[in-house]
Design a protein that fits this description.
By secondary structure, the protein is α/β, with parallel strands linked by helices. The chain has two domains: about 210 residues, Rossmann fold; about 100 residues, no CATH class. Helices cover about 30% and strands about 25% of the residues. Strands 6-7-8-3-9-10 form a six-stranded mixed sheet, with helices on both faces. Strands 2-1-4-5 form a four-stranded antiparallel sheet. It is globular and about 70 Å long.
Length: about 325
Amino acid sequence: MLEIRDLVKVYPGPVAALKGLTLEIPAGMFGLLGPNGAGKSTLMQILAGLLEPTSGAALLDGVDLIENPAYVRARLGYLPQSFGFYAHLTAEQMLLHLLRLKGVRTEGGPKRLARELLDRVGLLDVARRKLRGFSGGMRQRLGIAQAIAGDPRLIIVDEPTAGLDPEERLRFYRLLAELAENRIVVLSTHIVEDVSVLCSRFAIIDRGQIVSLTSPSAATLRLKGAIYEAHVEPAALAALSEDFLVTQAILVEGKNRVRIFLPRDRPPSGFRAVEPTLDDAYFTLMRAAPAPAAPAAPAAPEGIPADLPAQGAGA
């Protein structure tokens, strides 16, 4: 179990990146979803022992990681958002260098371990290829190879699929799912699909605070019957956004496909009820503007404020 208790991080300015964040993360894959600047990377760096919080605690299996940084280093695998490689080295040379830096030791020696790790992430056949020729997905898999060295208890991956093509993303999903079978894996991302595919539980973070703690199935189920869709002319989109909470507005075959959240009233002309997606749940939470609670209002969906206005909340 990873326990985060009242974590605060204030940068000079002052800028509060984390505002008393509290969270419990069990074994398995856990998603931390939020926009850029929400505080995700700050939290990941604190958990990895790279940054000291202003106050609060983080415990791994009961041991405080902030007071005992050596404990977490021996049990941590970390793939940061930006991972630097030496382009002139081969994949095997780079991994051997990283294993030495991490101090990982094994009975068969570092070279054998490096080849085993490269095989596990599907890079053994390119072990002697220089990194300057690697794709983004291949580099990310090499990053995971160094992260899992030493069989860590906790693995942190920060924005791991950003910039990957669809094939590499699917390959990376399978790899992460396999790693989460017997350890804690924290996936920090702003990509809703990452959470939808991989995580049975996730938290939404915004401006340094937890907005919601739920599961993909629960988040979408609670919106059933409240999401409507229609094709909308570009000139009408602004006015629609003033009157309804727009969860998505995307181009499909050159036309604006717009989805709105409407839990109680009748939809506008041309809109039809559709199955909610995790994107709908995420953007409903992120774009909701609290208003005074109405006594007669029905129970709100999990993680959505009971006083969420049906109208008058712009996107």
